From TrEMBL:
Membrane topology note: Multi-pass membrane protein
InterPro entries assigned to the protein according to its UniProt record, in alphabetical order: ABC2_TM, ABC2_TM_bact-type, ABC_2_transport, Nod_factor_ABC_transporter
Keyword Manganese set for record: no
Keywords attached to this entry: Antibiotic resistance, Cell membrane, Membrane, Transmembrane, Transmembrane helix, Transport
Stated name of the protein: Transport permease protein
Xref: PROSITE patterns: ABC_TM2 (PS51012)
Sequence intervals crossing the membrane: 34-52, 64-89, 110-136, 148-167, 179-198, 244-263
Length: 271
C-alpha cells in the first residue's frame, strides 16, 4: 500500500527545469517586457547606425564601434534591468511570498531567473549581429576573438544579473522599480562609451564609469569588433583584457554577497 511518505518529491534538477520553463513563458507573455528588453537595443542600433554614418579612422565606421556598446547595453537590459524590475514586481504582487511558502527549493527560483537571462541575452546578441551584418556591413569577430566575446559576455551577464537581483531590493515596491532602475542604467550607458566613443567622455566620468561593470564589458567587447590600432584610444592605451576579466569577476563576487545580504521575499513594511 502506497502512503504519502512513499511518494518521492521531484529531483532538484527537475524542479529547476520546470521553473526555468515557467520563467521563460512568463517573460515572453509580457509584451511590454519583450518589446523593451529585446527591441530597445535593436532600435538603438537601427537609429544610431542610420544617423551617425561616418568613419572614426583606420577604416572603422561608427556602427562597427557602436556594435560593442549596443550589445553591452542589451546584456545590461536583459540582466540588471530585467531582473531588478521583474523581481521587485513579483515581490510586490505577492508572487515571491507565495513561492517561499511552497516546497520548491528557493534555489530553483534563482536558477529559473538565470536561465531566462541566458536565453534572452543569446536572442538579443543574435538579433543585433544579424542586423549589424545585413544592414551595416559590420565585421564579425574571427578565430580566438569569439572566445573573448563569449567570456566577456558571460562574465558581464553574470555580474549584471547578480546586481539586478540585489538592486531589486532597493525599490520600495513594484511600481517604483522602473523609476528606480532605468535612470541609473541610462546614466551608466552614457558614461560607459555605449552611445559614443569612450575617449570623448570627460575624464572624471571615465573614472566613475570604471567603478561599474558596464564600462569593462563594453571595453572587452570593443576588443573583438575593432582593430588593435584603436586600442590606443582606450584610457590605458590597450584593451586590458586581464583587467576586464578581473573587474567583472570581482563584481560577480560583490553581487553575490549583496544578493545574500539584501534579498527579501516580501516588501518592506513601513512603520
Amino acid at each position: 500500500m502506497t502512503t504519502t511518505e512513499d511518494r518521492s518529491l521531484p529531483s532538484i534538477g527537475s524542479v529547476c527545469r520546470t521553473r526555468a520553463g515557467v520563467e521563460l513563458k512568463e517573460f515572453f507573455r509580457q509584451r511590454e517586457s519583450v518589446v523593451f528588453t529585446l527591441m530597445f537595443p535593436v532600435i538603438l542600433l537601427l537609429v544610431f547606425g542610420a544617423v551617425l554614418d561616418y568613419e572614426l579612422g583606420s577604416g572603422v565606421s561608427f556602427t562597427q564601434y557602436f556594435m560593442a556598446g549596443v550589445i553591452a547595453a542589451g546584456i545590461l537590459g536583459a540582466s540588471l534591468q530585467n531582473m531588478a524590475i521583474g523581481i521587485a514586481t513579483e515581490r510586490s504582487d505577492g508572487t515571491l511570498k507565495g513561492l517561499a511558502g511552497t516546497p520548491m527549493p528557493k534555489s530553483a527560483y534563482f536558477v529559473g531567473k538565470v536561465v531566462q537571462v541566458l536565453v534572452v541575452t543569446v536572442a538579443i546578441v543574435a538579433i543585433l549581429l544579424v542586423i549589424g551584418v545585413v544592414f551595416y556591413d559590420v565585421d564579425l569577430p574571427s578565430g580566438a576573438d569569439w572566445l573573448t566575446f563569449a567570456w566577456v559576455a558571460a562574465l558581464g551577464s553574470a555580474a549584471c544579473t547578480l546586481l539586478g537581483i540585489a538592486v531589486s531590493s532597493l525599490a520600495r515596491n513594484g511600481r517604483s522599480a522602473s523609476a528606480t532602475v532605468t535612470p541609473v542604467a541610462l546614466v551608466l550607458q552614457f558614461i560607459s562609451g555605449v552611445f559614443f566613443q569612450f575617449s570623448e567622455v570627460p575624464t572624471w566620468l571615465q573614472t566613475v564609469a570604471a567603478v561599474f561593470p558596464l564600462k569593462w564589458m563594453a571595453q572587452g567587447l570593443r576588443s573583438v569588433f575593432l582593430p588593435d590600432a584603436l586600442a590606443a584610444q582606450e584610457p590605458a592605451g590597450s584593451w586590458e583584457l586581464g583587467r576586464v576579466a578581473l573587474v567583472l569577476a570581482i563584481w560577480c563576487v560583490v553581487g553575490l554577497v549583496l544578493c545574500v545580504r539584501t534579498f527579501r521575499w516580501q516588501d518592506r513594511v513601513d512603520r
